[in-house]
Amino acid sequence: MSDPGSPLLELNYDRGSLVLQGGFPAGGGGWPEYLNRDERIGGWRCLALHYRALITWLTRSGLAFRDQARQYGELPLNASGFPEPFPHQSEALAVWRKAHWGMIELPTGAGKTQLALLAMAAIARDTLILVPTLDLMAQWSNVLESFLGVQPGMIGGGRHDLRPVTVSTYASAYRKGEHFGHRFGLAIFDECHHLGGEGFAHIAEILIAPYRIGLSATVERPDNRHRLLDSLIGPVVYRRSINELSGRYLADYRTEIIEADLTPQEREEYEACRRVYLDFAHSRNLAPSSGDGWRRFVFAAARSQEGREALEAYRRQRRIALTPASKLGILRDLLLRHRAERVLIFTNDNRTAYEIAQGFLLPIITHQTRISERRTILENFKDGHWPFLVTSRVLNEGVDVPTVNVAVVVSGTASVREHVQRLGRILRRAPGKEAVLYEILSSTPGERSVSRRRREHDAYR
Question: Helix or strand or coil: residue 390?
Fold first, then answer.
């Protein structure tokens, strides 16, 4: 209880920060370390991120204060129409509710979205949902209307409509969040590993939301910036792997590697280009595959004609390794084998994706595909009119593609996250379903090495 005779403080929200002003107690000692004196206003200031901690400290210190920062309200929601949650969803929600902060790591198809809706119903506060793409923004809007009867506001893609439940892209929240960061009590960070990206951490800092939940299939980032998330959302409080959930809550699956041989002409050109590239790297004592070796290689290559030729040779040998002619023959055989099923075809780059789409007359989605066209393609894929779909990386995560049995990785990076996400696209449960993921690898050292690195995950053991 605060002392009625103590000086009254006032807490306000100011474009992403909290401002504490008013009659300060004599001495003013013992202030939390995150509070900084702001002489311009004769008060104290901190990031909005500290709202929960600051309210707790003010209350426990017995200081009289008026909270003008909080502009969110209660939001009664009816979750009675939800499907019965799976045990892992109930466990995750129970663990998260102990702190009301934290990340939950579950495989694609394991019900992270429904878990977030259950959290919304349990907390019953105005809610901001943050997503990485416009596709996910539209998907969340549909889910909220279908399960909660809520028509959300949307921020992104030219829209700026604030409502008690609002869905925003990370990019839009980064640009505009300081104007609405005090409007929401619960923040849901979908695909929360994106928050570790350069600059995006700012989004979590300008929100006062005392309740925060992060969702991801793979929280860890190769650049280790996922470590920032513990202080922005909270640590991982619940985690289940693909192996733990497959067969009961996810589909059974298998993976298969198919090797594609280079033609004699491709092999000759590949070896020649690789020799040019490696000779230059060795002459400069560079190891492009280690640490910042690739950056140093590109920097060195830009300084001479010999270096530029080496860089071009690298690109050419890599292109041959990623797309030898035999890969397309193997892909054709797989499409014939699975012609009665729905198949997702993944590539590392748009150029290869368009070559496959044109060569096989298949629909394609890349980052260049317009939203309306993308929606049409996914709808036709979902209802089976178009059983095959080619994509580069835009369907790696987040988008709720329909129940797909087969994925074919024609080319990809060494990223464990990307490979697990691609596997996750085919793991949604269906009666009697066994999913299969094919990797088509060229018979080159580079492709074999990339495959080994991206399969360093429990899902492939």
Answer: strand
Helices 371-382 and 134-148: crossing angle in degrees, nearest 10, is 60
Taking residues 251-261, what's their average pLDDT? 94
Contacts of 410 by beta carbon, 8 Å cutoff, 6+ apart = 322, 323, 327, 331, 345, 346, 347, 348, 352, 356, 440
Tell me the CATH number of domain 252-261+324-460, given options 3.40.50.1460, 3.30.365.10, 3.30.565.10, 3.40.50.300.
3.40.50.300
Pair type for strands 406-409 and 343-346: parallel
Q: What is the pLDDT of residues 6-39, one digit of tens each?
A: 568 999 999 999 999 987 665 556 789 999 999 9
Residue 383 φ/ψ, nearest 5 degrees? -85, 0
Q: Does domain 9-67 have CATH number 1.20.1250.20?
A: no
| Second-level CATH architecture of 87-240 | 3-Layer(aba) Sandwich (3.40)
Beta bridge partners of 265: none
Return the higher-pLDDT residue of 459 and 388: 388
Residue entry with tokens 């939301």: 209
Asked if residue 117 lies in contact with residue 143, where contact means CB atoms within 8 angstroms, the answer is yes
Residues 6+ apart with CB under 8 A from 344: 389, 391, 395, 401, 404, 406, 407, 408, 422, 425, 426
Q: Report the alpha-carbon distance of residue 438 to residue 255 in Å, rounded.
A: 6
d(CA 292, CA 295): 5
Determine contact, residues 260/326, Cβ cutoff 8 Å: yes
Q: For the chain, how long is the longest CA-to-CA vector?
A: 90
Contacts of 397 (CB under 8 A, 6+ apart): 108, 132, 191, 217, 421, 424
Q: Tell me the DSSP string of 149-168.
A: ----EEEETTEE---SEEEE
Candidates 449, 455, 446, 447; CA nearest to 422 is 455
Cα 185 from Cα 83, distance rounded (Å): 25
User: pLDDT tens for residues 119-156?
Assistant: 999 999 999 999 998 888 988 998 999 888 899 999 99
